[in-house]
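Q: Please design a sequence for this.
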């Protein structure tokens, strides 16, 4: 089999999550996105909102690196983009304070870290309880932290993938929303494996956002009426 073929797109390849109904969405989600680099996941979210299946709108992008690819994509897509440069802040808490202000001003419900390469503090996590989502290029809990793709290659695994999870104070350790797998093929390097993972991230992240929203909706309903039976599984 040629090394360039992508097993993950072949019928019969094991995929997680398995085919499932898209979570029921009653309200349009107002999304904020944080990105540090290329912004392909940011664009995938915008596309999923504009063309389906995600019922939502990306109201605000925040980047920390001037001139990054995500910024150019925001301009092309007509999404407001704010630069919150970590180099102009004395501490992580101060940086997170600026992020909170920016997102509060645009009135977002959920915030997605789509390739945000800074550690966030309890200040940001506390401002968006169960509403802060991260995408990470490994099958967590394996290969947390930096260079997850390189870590997977160095470990010699034959299966890798990506994980979308809620952000907690434990780095890359919050509750998992969804995962997708890809094979690691003979001859793979960082770039070929990262590209294969990216393709799955673009499908997984919109689903994870819908799952997070469904969780919040079910929790709110249960809190309002504790005697009501639990709703249908949200995925
Ligand atoms: C993605 O692969 C994402 O999983 C990763 O950065 C890339 C961003 O790509 N995030 C992390 O490593 C966070 N620990 P993009 O800018 O093209 O969306």
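A: Design:
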């Amino acid at each position: 089999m040629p090394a360039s073929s992508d097993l993950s797109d072949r019928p019969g390849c094991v995929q997680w999550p398995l085919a499932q109904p898209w979570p029921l969405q009653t309200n349009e989600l107002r999304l904020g996105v944080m990105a540090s680099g290329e912004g392909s996941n940011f664009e995938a979210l915008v596309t999923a909102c504009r063309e389906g299946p995600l019922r939502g709108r990306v109201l605000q992008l925040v980047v920390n690196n001037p001139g990054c690819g995500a910024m150019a994509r925001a301009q092309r897509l007509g999404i407001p983009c704010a630069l919150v440069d970590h180099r102009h802040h004395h501490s992580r808490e101060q940086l997170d304070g600026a992020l909170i202000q920016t997102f509060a001003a645009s009135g977002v419900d959920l915030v997605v870290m789509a390739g945000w390469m800074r550690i966030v503090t309890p200040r940001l996590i506390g401002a968006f309880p169960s509403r802060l989502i991260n995408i990470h290029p490994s099958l967590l809990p394996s290969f947390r932290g930096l260079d997850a793709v390189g870590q997977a290659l160095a470990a010699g695994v034959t299966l890798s993938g990506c994980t979308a999870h809620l952000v907690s104070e434990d780095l890359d350790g919050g509750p998992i929303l969804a995962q997708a797998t890809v094979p690691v093929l003979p001859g793979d390097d960082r770039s070929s494996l990262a590209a294969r993972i990216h393709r799955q991230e673009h499908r997984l992240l919109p689903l994870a956002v819908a799952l997070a929203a469904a969780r919040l909706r079910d929790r709110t309903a249960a809190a309002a009426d504790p005697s009501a039976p639990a709703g249908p599984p949200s995925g």
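Q: Thanks. Anything notable?
A: Residues 1-8, 10-14 have pLDDT under 50 and may be disordered. The chain has one domain: 27-224.
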